[in-house]
Design goal:
The complex is a heterodimer of chains A (276) and B (129). Chain A contains eleven helices and eleven strands. Chain A has a nine-stranded mixed sheet, sandwiched between helices. Chain A has a two-stranded antiparallel sheet with strand order 4-5. The N and C termini of chain A lie close together (6 Å). Chain B has 129 residues and is of the alpha/beta class. Chain B has four helices and six strands; from the N terminus they run βββαβαβααβ. A five-stranded mixed sheet of chain B has the order 3-2-1-4-5, with helices on one face. The chains are: A alpha/beta (276), B alpha/beta (129). β5 of chain A pairs antiparallel with β6 of chain B.
């Protein structure tokens, strides 16, 4: 069973919820897919035993064979190549590694070289996986693809997504069995939740709402989700205790036994809802 | 000398478009004959690399100097590597007036080195392939 935890607005509590589930469910892998800013390790404190670099292919032009015909630049949808009067310029950070330029070159002047863009970190017993994009790199998607390949096929895994509803998130949730949307009951939280709700509905995957920092006014997010077929499955009240624990690197399940029970129950319910 | 001006309109009366990669279009022509032709900017809607695509167009059109408002780092890389000069045009003035100013030596060359160093660069610029 693969559960994805996503939010829309940042800072709503995705990592809190994802890490809590991973902590209380036996044999569950926590996968940090927020590759631009992975922070699960702050709470789960894994002993990292392996780091695998993530590399992507970028084109290399053999200057002695290239006749500056321009076919490679014309084939590239991402404008990652510019053909000058005397040589070809490659823009590796625009390259999407599709290979179209290589296929288009009539002189067979192009080859590939690998370029590192990030790293996968894991612990020895396979309970923690983290993808980390190198600073300055524009796209985390190849890191997410590599990261997901490290998740054992039969494992129960919780995938902690990046905030928002863009490429990185949609690549993370692809293939998951259940989507947990974590939202805060504020107008800003509601606004960003709408984008993720649309994304969730487009996948057709069963989803549930977790209201974090809940109080008397939910800013209409319960009703919004209910109308979209997404029930509220857990509420975490706004709590100073939780906030203080968080600031010291402790999860709710670390500071309250009832939270261990609540998250265990949630995971069991999810298993039933997605028929996994 | 072949010159291009980034422009909002399709003739010399139209205003200078201060953008390069996302300019609406370009007026390209010869300073000696003063005959200019309008070209839509095909790179306008590109999700990325618009500056590269527009600079590539300048190379294809054998332009020797570009008059525009500002150049992004990718466009700067390509223009510098191709040996095309860039001049800082005056926004709000027409393309024709900018060309006249250029002929009189009244436009400053654009500093294409600073585009790379200071700004929010995500990548590392163009490399020889």
């Amino acid at each position: 069973m693969k559960i994805a935890v996503l939010s829309g607005k940042g800072g709503t509590g995705k990592t809190t919820v994802a890490a809590c589930i991973a902590r209380v469910v036996p044999e569950c892998v926590y996968v940090d897919c927020d590759v631009e800013e992975p922070d699960g390790a702050l709470f789960l404190k894994p002993a990292i035993s392996e780091e695998t670099p993530v590399e992507v292919p970028v084109p290399v032009v053999a200057a002695d064979v290239c006749d500056l015909c321009g076919e490679c630049a014309a084939a590239c949808r991402f404008h990652a190549l510019a053909v000058l009067r005397d040589r070809v310029l490659v823009f590796p950070e625009l390259c999407h590694h599709c290979g179209a330029c290589m296929a288009a070159c009539p002189a067979r002047a192009m080859s590939e070289k690998m370029r590192r863009i990030g790293v996968i970190r894991s612990d020895a017993d396979g309970s923690f996986l983290e993808g980390r994009l190198d600073i300055g790199e524009p796209s985390g998607v190849p890191v997410i693809r590599a990261l997901k390949r490290h998740i054992p096929e039969t494992a129960t895994a919780v995938l902690d997504c990046a905030p928002g509803a863009a490429c990185t998130v949609s690549h993370t949730i692809d293939g998951c069995d259940y989507l947990l949307l974590v939202a805060e009951p504020t107008p800003f939280g509601r606004h960003d939740l709408e984008a993720v709700l649309t994304l969730a509905r487009e996948t057709g995957v069963p989803a549930g709402l977790v209201i974090n920092k809940a109080g008397p006014d939910d800013a209409g997010i319960r009703a919004l989700c209910r109308a979209a077929g997404v029930p509220t499955v857990l509420e975490i009240p706004f709590s100073r205790n939780i906030a203080e624990g968080y600031s010291r690197g402790y999860l709710p399940v670390d500071i309250g036994f009832h939270w261990r029970l609540a998250f265990r129950r949630l995971a069991a319910d999810i298993e039933g809802w997605c028929g996994a | 000398m072949r010159v291009a001006v980034s422009t909002e309109g399709s003739d010399l009366e139209g205003k200078l478009d201060p953008r390069f990669g996302r300019a609406a279009g370009f007026l390209i022509g010869d300073l000696e004959t003063m005959s200019f032709r309008y070209l839509d900017n095909a790179a306008l809607d590109a999700s990325g690399g618009a500056g590269i695509a527009a600079a590539q167009e300048m190379i294809r059109e054998h332009v020797e100097a570009v008059i525009t408002g500002h150049l992004g780092p990718n466009a700067s890389d390509v223009m510098k590597a191709a040996g095309i000069a860039a001049y800082a045009g005056v926004p709000g003035m027409s393309a024709g007036e900018n060309i006249r100013l250029y002929r009189e030596g009244g436009l400053a060359p654009m500093d294409m080195t600073s585009a790379r160093g200071g700004g929010q660069r995500h990548g590392r610029g163009g490399r020889d392939g």
